[in-house]
Design brief:
Layout: E1 2-7, H1 12-24, E2 29-33, H2 41-47, E3 52-55, H3 62-76, E4 82-85, H4 94-106, E5 111-116, H5 124-141, E6 153-156, H6 160-165, H7 172-183, E7 188-193, H8 209-216, H9 218-244, H10 251-277, H11 284-312, H12 317-340
Parallel strand pairs: 1-2, 1-4, 2-3, 5-7
Antiparallel strand pairs: 4-6, 5-6
């Protein structure tokens, strides 16, 4: 087991934690200095005599620091069986780290995360942020995790090739790691740990509420954008065709106009999701066949719902179209994210 500590602009908490780790444990320790300022050099120089310190030339982000630590373990500790990540700001105790490591050996092959209990005086942005990411993670993965933002986690070194392929430079990397393990159907086990904050504003954390939240939620944001563009194209084209054939008094005219508009928007949506949203690396034939099946299924459901709303419930076509698209939005997202635009990842044999 190797301890990896990503560190950016650390203070006395890092020094104290390393001293405790050296005194109470025998694990190798790797610290990744993620481009901290020059005045922090004295801290890393002090620790360099006792642990391995790797320096980034600039601040690349926590995700990149974690990956740097993993690459270092591949080369310098090839026979170690696991890696445990722990934050540099003093939010994790040695006792909790040991609990996570113990769970690692009791759950071979699983990703172990130290889940904070969030009791007592918790910074409001941390509490709200975790609740939101927990909900989004469950929607995306169908896996319930109580703390998606915890930095205390242990994982087998056999997953390092896979971990290095996961996208993300900053805090979004930790969320993407969970999503990848859930998608690969690898067990995620939780260990309850203490919630430790320096103060009510969590001043020791370098998490940027707006920028890092956007990165964490980027997949669903991009999907919503691509869906909005496609839906707008679909809606405008649908209304245009309805107006063009307004003189044709047939209940099927709505269905025909809807099918034509859906085909055009589906082609647009496919290309946007393939190139910009999911960035999958499966072959194009696999993409096309799966997406075609989904598109046909969504089209049938779309047309059926639209027919019911307009001909049986007598809702105006323009309003019925909006209601139908909203109903099918999340269905489409979950199917595309989990079954169509998946990413093939490499991992050593388990």
């Amino acid at each position: 087991m190797v301890i990896v500590i990503p560190a950016y602009e650390p203070d006395h908490h890092l020094v104290k934690m390393v001293e405790n780790l050296i005194y109470y444990t025998n694990y190798p320790i790797v610290i990744v200095n993620d481009g901290s300022s020059e005045d922090k050099k004295v801290i890393f120089d002090r620790l360099r005599s006792f642990v391995d310190v790797i320096n980034h030339p600039a601040n690349l982000g926590k995700g990149e620091a974690m990956k740097t630590g993993l690459k270092y373990i591949q080369k310098q500790f090839p026979f170690e069986d696991g890696v445990v990540f722990i934050d540099a700001d003093g939010q994790h105790s040695i006792e909790d780290m040991e609990k996570v490591i113990e769970a690692f050996y009791l759950n071979q092959g699983a990703l172990i995360i130290g889940s904070r209990e969030f009791t007592g005086k918790i910074p409001i942005k941390s509490l709200i942020g975790n609740k939101i990411t927990r909900l989004i993670f469950k929607i995306l993965s169908k896996v319930a995790v109580s703390d998606t933002q915890t930095g205390l986690r242990a994982v087998s070194t056999k997953y390092i090739p896979m971990l290095l392929e996961i996208e993300g430079e900053r805090y979004e990397y930790e969320m993407n790691m969970l999503l990848t393990f859930a998608k690969e159907k690898i067990k995620i086990a939780e260990v309850s740990i203490e919630t430790i904050y320096e103060d009510s504003s969590n001043s020791t954390s370098h998490f940027r509420a707006v920028k890092d939240s956007i990165r964490i939620y980027s997949v669903i944001f991009k999907f919503m954008t691509s869906s909005a563009v496609s839906a707008l194209l679909d809606y405008v084209l649908f209304i245009f065709l309805i107006s063009l054939f307004a003189g044709i008094q047939s209940s099927l005219s709505v269905i025909v106009c809807n099918i034509f508009a859906r085909v055009v928007s589906a082609i647009t949506n496919y290309n946007l999701n393939k190139k910009c949203v999911f960035k999958s690396n499966n072959d194009n034939r696999s993409y096309g066949i799966k997406y075609a099946v989904l598109a046909i299924g969504i089209l049938c459901a779309n047309s059926l719902i639209l027919y019911v709303l307009t001909n049986l419930m007598f809702i105006p076509a323009a309003i019925a179209k909006i209601v139908t698209e909203i109903l099918l939005f999340f269905v489409s997202f979950l199917i595309q994210q989990r079954f169509i635009f998946t990413r093939k990842v490499n991992q050593q044999s388990i």
